[in-house]
Amino acid sequence: MLRLRRITSGASWIPQIDGLRFVAILSVLMFHLGGEVNARGPKNLAMPRNFEWLNIVQGNGDRGVVLFFVISGYILARPFLREHRLEGHPVKLGRYFLRRLTRLEPPYILSLLIFTFAEWQVNHVALRTLLPHLLASLTYTHNVIYSAPSLISFVTWSLEIEVQFYILAPLLGNLYRIEKTALRRATIAVLMGVMGIVSMHLGDRMHGTLLGYAQYFLAGFLLADLLEYPRHAPRQHWLWDVVSVAAWGGVFFLPKGAFVMAWLPLVIIPAYLAAFYGRVSNWFFRQPFVALTGGMCYSIYLLHMLVISTAFRVVKHLHGYNDGETMLLQQVVLLLPLVLLVGAVYFVLIERPCMDPEWPQKLWRRLRGAGQEL
After folding, report:
1. What does the domain layout of the chain look like in residue ranges?
2. 140: region left, alpha or beta (phi > 0 left; psi from -120 to 50 alpha)
3. 238 or 259, higher pLDDT
4. 0.85 exceeded by pTM
5. How far is CA 268 from CA 13, 29, 64, 251, in A?
């Protein structure tokens, strides 16, 4: 466990959260692998009836994105909860925004440059076409300007929504100033409900903005309150494992629709609580492979579509399948390890160094020292 702590994010590392990230990133990967099979694979590959459940789970894999939104809400809520309710240090907004800039921007910017180069050199898209989209993506304004995912990397639509929440989170952090626990939690729950209704009725028009997904981030705020401010922390119990099975089943098997997406946070919260309080669930989400892979999810998320779309050009010509289930399984076996490997390399070389809050100062001292030697 000490080794895991050194590999990931330091003293405040919570293995269950990285374990939940594992489920989220795996869901996204399965969704996009299935989408690649459907879009670019042989046509008329029907899913066998006895594997229809796999088709449902894969088709709902895009819910991995909102699973990430709840986790982001939880992570961003913790400093404000500690400040207002647990007598922690005040959150300095300058440091708060600078930390997100130094932690997230270098991997993000580099990934966009890699995608732009690939589109230019491999897909022969003109630079004059790519550069406006690149600029909009770099400034997190593509959703607003184009009302569509980025031409450079379409998965960045969700990161633009994350940035909108980063900006709003300090204001929402004042919710933790409410002293009475029941009133505070009820207030957050009501806000979740209001934003769920907004999403349900305006979802199509608000798809690229925080208004379409605010209920998920607020669910993270409520989750932080439930996990870190209990009067009596519940012990791990197997009943939570029953809750876990039921809740995860709801996450991936509830039908698509605006109503379900508006109220899905009510299913995600117990699933996440079970990761801490269920005996088997807690054991699973703390497993080294699960937690380590989840800890690399940002790097994997940034690069996975480039790996999938590139490698699929080769593996789609491999035969030996007669149905959609077999082909999807083949792509998972062939491409998923490659995606994880590329993501791990990117994490080690690019993202993990940015986890050090002092890396800009260290880099500047190193460059200055090198300059003096010359």
Report:
1. 2-368
2. left
3. 238
4. yes
5. 21, 19, 11, 7
